Automatic annotation (TrEMBL):
Keyword tags: Oxidoreductase
Coiled-coil blocks: none
Family matches, as SUPFAM superfamilies: 6-phosphogluconate dehydrogenase C-terminal domain-like (SSF48179), NAD(P)-binding Rossmann-fold domains (SSF51735)
Residue span, Mannitol dehydrogenase N-terminal domain: 35-279
Superkingdom as given in the UniProt entry: Bacteria
Xref: InterPro entries: 6-PGluconate_DH-like_C_sf, 6PGD_dom2, Mannitol_DH, Mannitol_DH/Oxidoreductase, Mannitol_DH_C, Mannitol_DH_N, NAD(P)-bd_dom_sf
Keyword check for Calcium: no
Protein's recorded name: Mannitol dehydrogenase family protein
UniProt-listed Pfam families: Mannitol_dh (PF01232), Mannitol_dh_C (PF08125)
Gene3D superfamilies: N-(1-d-carboxylethyl)-l-norvaline Dehydrogenase, domain 2, NAD(P)-binding Rossmann-like Domain
Record keyword Magnesium present: no
Mannitol dehydrogenase C-terminal domain mapped to chain residues: 288-482
Length: 511
């Protein structure tokens, strides 16, 4: 009979198989110095790995306390393993395994904010990084302002000492720090929202202003909210991933994380106190993150959202399935090159066309099993920065938006078809799912009425954009095709129209 395999933990570190890299520093001596809010696959594959690299190079008091205020619980996975986990880098048949040691403690704070506040307000925490998903900021996507009608914000403004939301928890953290030791704090957002540091600062400030007692002024003087661009594809971990570690390396690990080889982190140099020297291990400190952020969110994330929603409509499971489809691949490449790239400002050292090819190449990695439904989750919180902002820039330039409008209609069609009226074709998770389903249930299959109803949601579509006739027409016509029996007709038609427009332009310029 086989004995059940040992679980990863400090006792196993010295006996790991040679093919698994281990922390190159004395982990027992690692003191906590920062916290991370939202410990999921991405954090384990990104910030925690950079920190692990840094600790190996230059040991310092930068142990991470991982805090979750939403599921999943951490105690039974990372907690049982004293924060240790295996990070796999996978590219097609290549696997590289390493045990990461930078997380020294985990705290579950799903039931109440108290355990989280105890950590975040403590004087030995000098910096807080966070990946709390786009909707965690409780902002209005079209404006970036705090959504004062959000149920958690309503709750937190009424009960500021027992907050539930991220803005409420951060405001309370800073209030407690001010009242107890007065030490400054850097709050580093690592989520894919536009100008993430600016939005985080805005939602916290708005909250603090309502709280009064000079809190907002104290925060302005004692906290920093740098912007950051983060990048590494790290899908939700599956049971298969855990089983693979057991099969390959002989131990059990309930907190495996799987990512692609590529990684990038660009951080605005605006800190309130000490920061880890992540710039020594591949991150970049810059004065302005904007060009990097636009490049990444519009090209890589724009391609992912496009392939995800159109991929689901085409019956495809993963990103790599969608990008292997010749029509979808041709579409996304043309969209990025022709419509997205001209909206970008130059990024030092980056050739835009090469970046597009590199991004599409990353999406072909068959070992990264990123489900289209996962990327389509919370699409309402993603399309502004990935699709609508480049569309708005194009319209300002008087340039075409026929291609970028298709994935916008794709997002609509994805939620519309989850409604009762459309037979609930798939389960969806998006704060606006109910609203879109309500429109679909009332209107039925009438593309102009559906598009009109959805474009009127002004917390996603800024009124100026929603009123633009070119945009409305392009979205409506794509939506009509996407809801038909031949959804990919939308993709073919937009490519054909784009070709016609191109020929016209080249004839005109030849005259
Ligand atoms: C993905 C991102 O789920 C999603 O929205 O587009 O998580 C993406 O994989 C990362 O931003 C890559 O850095």
């Amino acid at each position: 009979m086989n004995a059940s395999p040992e679980t990863l933990g400090p006792a196993l570190l010295d006996r790991l198989p040679v093919s698994v890299q281990r922390p190159a520093y004395d982990r027992a001596a690692l003191a906590r110095g920062m916290a991370h809010l939202g410990v999921g696959a991405f954090h384990r594959c990104h910030q925690a790995e950079y920190t692990d690299d840094l600790l190996s190079l230059q040991f310092d008091r930068w142990g991470v306390v991982g805090v979750n205020i939403r599921p999943p619980g951490l105690a039974d996975t990372l907690g049982r393993q004293s924060g240790l986990y295996t990070r796999l880098i996978r590219e097609n048949s290549h696997v590289e395994a390493r045990v990461i040691g930078s997380i020294v403690k985990v705290v579950d704070s799903q039931e109440s904010a108290e355990p989280a506040l105890d950590v975040l307000a403590s004087p030995d925490i000098e910096l807080v990084t966070m990946t709390v998903t786009e909707k965690g900021y409780c902002h209005i996507p079209s404006s970036g302002e705090l959504d004062l009608g959000h149920p958690d914000i309503v709750h937190d403004l009424a009960n500021p000492e027992t907050p539930r939301s991220v803005p409420g928890i951060i405001a309370r953290t800073l209030e407690l720090r001010r009242a107890t030791h007065g030490r400054s704090l850097t709050l580093l957002s690592c989520d894919n929202i536009p100008t993430n540091g600016v939005i985080l600062e805005k939602v916290v400030r708005t909250f603090a202003e309502r709280r009064g007692k000079g809190l907002a002024d104290w925060i302005a003087a004692n906290a920093a909210f740098p912007c950051a661009m983060v990048d590494r594809i790290a899908p939700a971990v599956t049971r298969d991933d855990l089983d693979s570690v057991e099969q390959w390396f002989g131990y059990r690990d309930g907190a495996v994380a799987v990512g692609e080889p590529f990684r990038q982190w660009v951080i605005e140099q605006k800190f309130a106190g000490r920061v880890p020297r992540w710039d020594l291990v591949g991150a970049t400190f810059v004065d302005d993150v904007t060009p990097f952020e636009h490049l990444k969110m519009r090209v890589l994330n724009g391609a992912q959202t496009t392939l995800a929603t159109l991929g689901v409509l085409a019956g495809l499971e993963h990103t790599f399935d969608a990008v292997a489809d010749p029509l979808l691949a041709a579409f996304v490449r043309r969209m990025l090159v022709q419509e997205t790239l001209p909206t970008l400002t130059p990024v030092p050292g980056v050739l835009p066309l090469a970046y597009v090819e590199q991004s599409l190449g990353r999406l072909q990695n068959t070992a990264i099993r990123h489900r289209n439904h996962q990327i389509a989750t919370d699409g309402s919180q993603k399309i502004v920065q990935r699709l609508l902002n480049p569309i708005r820039d194009r319209l300002r330039q008087g340039a075409g938006i026929g291609l970028l409008s298709v994935p916008v209609a794709g997002w609509m069609a994805y939620l519309i078809q989850a409604s009762t009226r459309f037979g609930k074709r798939w389960p969806v998770s998006d704060p606006y799912a109910g609203k879109v389903a309500g429109i679909a249930d009332t209107v039925g299959r009438d593309a102009p009425a559906l598009a009109s109803g959805i474009l009127a949601i002004d917390t996603i579509f800024a009124p100026g954009l929603a009123a633009n006739e070119t945009f409305r027409a392009a979205v409506t016509s794509a939506l009509d095709d996407l809801l038909s029996d031949d959804p990919m007709a939308a993709v073919r038609h937009s490519l054909e129209q784009d070709e016609v427009a191109r020929l016209k332009r080249s004839k005109q310029s030849a005259l």
